[in-house]
Amino acid sequence: MKMQLEILLVQVLFAGLASAADILQNPDFESPPTNLTPNRSTPFVLLNGNNTIPGWTFEGTVQYVTASQTIRLPDNGHAIQLAQDGRINQTFAANGDDLIYILTLTLAPGGQNCSANANLVASAPDSHGVYSLKQHYGKETWESYGHYLGSWGQDEPINLVIQSQSTESDDNSTCWPVIDMLLLKSSKTLVQGNDNLLLNGGFEFGPDFLSNSTEGVLLESAPSPIQSALQQWSVIGTVKYIDSKHFYVPKGNAAIEIVSVSAGIQTATTMLTEGSAYNLDFTLGDAKDACEGMFVVRVQAGSLVQNFTVQSLGTGSAIKHSVTFKAGSGSTPISFISYNINQTKDGVFCGPLIDDVVLRASHGFKLQLRLEILIYALVLVAIL
Ligand SMILES: *[C@@H]1O[C@H](CO)[C@@H](O)[C@H](O)[C@H]1NC(C)=O
Ligand SMILES: *[C@@H]1O[C@H](CO)[C@@H](O)[C@H](O)[C@H]1NC(C)=O
Ligand SMILES: *[C@@H]1O[C@H](CO)[C@@H](O)[C@H](O)[C@H]1NC(C)=O
Ligand SMILES: *[C@@H]1O[C@H](CO)[C@@H](O)[C@H](O)[C@H]1NC(C)=O
Ligand SMILES: *[C@@H]1O[C@H](CO)[C@@H](O)[C@H](O)[C@H]1NC(C)=O
Ligand SMILES: *[C@@H]1O[C@H](CO)[C@@H](O)[C@H](O)[C@H]1NC(C)=O
Ligand SMILES: *[C@@H]1O[C@H](CO)[C@@H](O)[C@H](O)[C@H]1NC(C)=O
Ligand SMILES: *[C@@H]1O[C@H](CO)[C@@H](O)[C@H](O)[C@H]1NC(C)=O
With the C-alpha atoms ordered 258, 282, 223, 212, is the resulting torsion angle positive or negative? Predict the structure, then answer.
């Protein structure tokens, strides 16, 4: 136990963000392809061997898209449609050692009245994510997703590939995905601090937000907390990563809103001492997004499982809760799962908000910790 205490005392929170804003070239496709012949009667222009997209290489059937009545885009500008066998790629250089790269991508349906929407696949050497428009969560036709890309050493070349994936044998009635607004964010590996036994308990480390979007960023199921766009948390079902600029966020710049049934987030820690008591503090509430309802959130901390009710009027509210539990042997799971969700009057899927999750040794333990610091200090003074 002393060993663990010492580790806790010595290690200080060191979590920094590096700017990756300029790593990708032409991430919003606003630099138009070369030799483009615009066609006033259609928002799509098919690219051929005479075209190049600045910053990108393309293959297969790829069209340059201009926002219109039928194709809505977050910046009202331009995007790329990846039709049959369509694929774009760009190689960027990792700009630091041990940085984690998280991608935010925006996906829009490339047509109307289709029998199916083809999927979009985003991949890099360490990751592979499939995104679809099968389920619609927000009020816009497009949706933004967070995607864990990977972690590489300084100057390592990373080939980011985005391609379409057909879901039907009849490709003629398929709507092909439109991709826009790729935001790449890098962040340092998180290190344990002494104010919280959980890493990223405030959810500050996740994908970048589109600066003008009121839609948040969707996070799809991620079984591994390491390979997750929400650092250190695995994602069950679909949750929404929300920003304080457009939502009510109790603490810091970001929080989680659960937007699908039986969905949530989960982490685990091996830092606890078997038999010792710990407090798990957390905030539940509503994100001020007109979401009404009574939600039941299942909170698990080790072997303790308890339900909490969130009464939401959709006007922005939060209540702090705390549970005390005794750590068992091995890894201690911590999770928040919502049994139910609802939809706003606009049809936007919504649910309970979670923020500011803090795990600490319970009071008695803390006293003991202070005492040990005192003893160490006295010993140090005596030696000097
Ligand atoms: C413009 O688009 C329309 C409709 O897709 C097509 O019929 C026409 O041939 C196109 N014009 C040119 C110059 O490509
Ligand atoms: C490329 O441009 C040349 C000259 O304008 C034209 O002859 C050729 O057909 C174009 N190639 C394609 C694939 O459209
Ligand atoms: C955000 O909105 C402002 C004002 O409407 C606009 O000037 C700006 O270009 C937008 N930014 C992006 C990234 O779309
Ligand atoms: C795209 O990938 C190909 C290999 O598949 C590579 O030759 C090319 O350089 C890549 N393009 C960019 C812009 O990274
Ligand atoms: C889709 O269907 C609607 C209603 O049936 C129709 O008004 C619209 O023109 C169709 N759009 C396309 C692109 O076919
Ligand atoms: C798709 O359309 C093309 C050309 O319009 C046609 O040749 C092909 O047979 C169609 N495929 C199917 C599966 O309907
Ligand atoms: C779901 O939200 C609607 C308003 O959008 C509200 O009238 C309804 O009571 C809510 N349902 C539940 C079960 O809370
Ligand atoms: C929590 O609520 C769910 C759904 O209402 C119920 O099925 C479950 O038994 C409850 N669990 C506890 C520990 O009370």
Answer: positive
Using alpha carbons, select from 119, 121, 97, 123 the residue that is nearest to residue 109. Answer: 119
Check whether residue 36 and residue 107 sit in a common domain: yes
The CATH number assigned to the domain holding 362 equals: 2.60.120.260
Q: Whose CA is nearest to atom 3 of ligand 3?
A: 212
* pLDDT-flagged residues of the chain (< 50): 1-19
Best residue among 312, 313, 342 to mutate for probing ligand 7, ranked by most atoms within 8 Å of CB: 342
Which atom number of ligand 6 is nearest to the Cα of residue 172?
1
Is the CB–ligand 2 distance for residue 34 below 6 Å?
A: no
CA–CA separation, 369 vs 362, rounded Å? 11
From the CA of 304, how far away is ligand 8's center (Å)? 13
Is residue 57 a part of any domain in this protein?
Answer: yes
In this prediction, residue 114 carries a pLDDT of 78
169 & 249 share domain: no
Beta bridge mates, 294: 311
Q: How many domains does the chain have?
A: 2
Is pTM, for the whole model, over 0.85?
yes
Whether the CB-CB separation of 49 and 33 falls below 8 Å is answered with no
The rounded Å distance from CA 347 to ligand 2 centre is 47
Q: In this structure, what is the dihedral angle of CA atoms 30, 36, 41, 46, given to the nearest 10 degrees?
A: -90
What number does the ligand 2 atom closest to the CA of 50 have? 1
Amino acid identity at 93:
A
Nearest by Cα to 151 from 226, 219, 57: 226
Strand partners, 102: 148, 185
Q: Is 172 in the pocket of ligand 6 (CB under 6 A)?
A: yes
Of 212, 215, 243, the one to substitute when testing ligand 3's pocket (max ligand atoms within 8 A of C-beta) is: 212
Q: Count Cβ neighbours within 10 Å for each residue of 105-143 and write b for 16 or more, e otherwise.
A: bbbbbbeeebebbbbbbbbbeebebebbbeeebbebbbb
Alpha carbon of 40 to ligand 1 centroid (Å): 8
Q: Which of 41, 44, 69, 113 to mutate to test the pocket of ligand 5 (most atoms within 8 A of CB)?
A: 113
